Amino acid sequence: MVFPDHSHYAIPKRSNAALLLSAVSRLGGGALVAFMFIWTIWSSFNPTPITRTLSALAETSHTNLGRHDSPERNIYDDPNLSYALGSSPPMKGWNEKRQEWLKQHPSLAPGAPTRIVMVTGSQPGPCKNPIGDHLLLKLFKNKVDYCRSHGIDIFYNNALLHPQMFSFWAKMAAVRAAMLAHPEAEWIWWVDSDAAFTDMDFLPPPLPPPQHGRVFLLRNSQWALDFLDMWASMGPQSPDYAKWGQTLSSVFKDKIFPESDDQSGLIYLYLKEKWGEKIYVEDEYYFEGYWLEIVPTFENITARYMEIERNVGTLRRRHAEKVSEGYARVWEEQLKGKEDLRRPFITHFTGCQPCTGNHNRMYSGDSCSDAMIKALAFADNQVLKNYGFMHPDLHDPSTVIPLPFDYPA
Ligand SMILES: *[C@@H]1O[C@H](CO)[C@@H](O)[C@H](O)[C@H]1NC(C)=O
Ligand SMILES: *[C@@H]1O[C@H](CO)[C@@H](O)[C@H](O)[C@H]1NC(C)=O
């Protein structure tokens, strides 16, 4: 996997502390815009590309080279291995165990340093909002499209893995389980169900990895397992839940509810505990944006991108979806120095609650769902382009038209 050069994503630099403070001050409004990164020590591999054909895969399918397990004992044969948060005895030596497992599965070792598994999910039951499940399906399709075009595996979890870790706490249990289920992946990338990828081309750089309360990348490592245990210890299943609620409320004066929550917990760990050393606050590029500001600009962004396409013949060339990365590079060159017209990478529907419909009273339910439908059509146009179609009207996802040859010359 190749990560695009993104140096031109630079926005005026602010200190991490200033960014954190602005994030903290926005907690009350529910729009946390801290760009945070978590990382642990980068272990170096030399990624070599694997080229396999279907028939080669079939021939090797009963050997250890394909997707079959090694007969040798490994981490999974340890009866003490627990996928749960706060397991006892706690996991120790995960980095070494992962490396041993990769040695037993040599077909999966190449590429491991950049391999990503995306984890997302929603509640186990049906949505209360009548169109909630429809919106969640569209949001999930958007993530599947994004992952397919970047070779990322995706795990959608809709089981409450820890009965008491409801709402925003549920993700920690899913992320922890995904780390143990995917020793072949270096990164676990959590994305909230109500976030949409609105730049399907962009892939964040491998180092340092993005981390955000609602969108975060964690290195699959012992450090991350320990960190998740610590972070989860602020949650409702913990005997210290009430105490953490008091601590967080006293530190963050404008926190709007007294219970401990994941985002203020994360910021607390960043500011007050040793964990901050390995949490990186990203402010170099436009990682995630607030829907109310972004969605009204989609028509203008579309018009500007079309103008570039009219001028650059390469960008109008039809191509197979698999080779889109080269075209993404051409886009990068064209967009250099034009940050204001760049598509936002992720649009987050903060305050909208598509499933329950209990959206922030600031917005009407219609404005939330209309904005989601529009953002998802905007993203879908980037996907459909490779399939020869487009939605001419972002407000009308049911209508598509075929794209003529050399469009939009
Ligand atoms: C499992 O954990 C228990 C308690 O910590 C320990 O006594 C036992 O030796 C461990 N078993 C294995 C196979 O590591
Ligand atoms: C879109 O572009 C037009 C023309 O440049 C401008 O007047 C308008 O304010 C822009 N709209 C938004 C939402 O940015």
TrEMBL record:
It comes from the Eukaryota. GO terms for molecular function: galactosyltransferase activity. One of its GO terms (cellular component) is Golgi membrane. Its main location: Golgi. Keywords: Glycosyltransferase, Golgi apparatus, Membrane, Signal-anchor, Transferase, Transmembrane, Transmembrane helix. PANTHER family: GLYCOSYLTRANSFERASE 7-RELATED (PTHR31311:SF3), XYLOGLUCAN 6-XYLOSYLTRANSFERASE 5-RELATED-RELATED (PTHR31311). Belongs to the glycosyltransferase 34 family. This is Xyloglucan 6-xylosyltransferase. It comes from Salvia splendens (Scarlet sage).
